[in-house]
Amino acid sequence: MKYALILGASGDIGMATARELASAGWSLYCHYHRHEEVVKTLVQELCEKYPEQLFSAVSLDMTQSTVPRAFYEEIGPVDAVIFANGKTVYKLLTEMEAEEMDELWRLFVKTPALICQHLQEKLAKRKQGRIVFISSVYGFSGSAMEVMYSTLKGAQHAFVKAYAQEVASLGMTVNAVAPGAVDTHMNTDWTAEEQAQLLSDIPLQRMASPYEVATLVTFLLGESASYITGASIPITGGWKY
Question: Where is the signal peptide (predicted)?
Answer without folding.
Answer: none
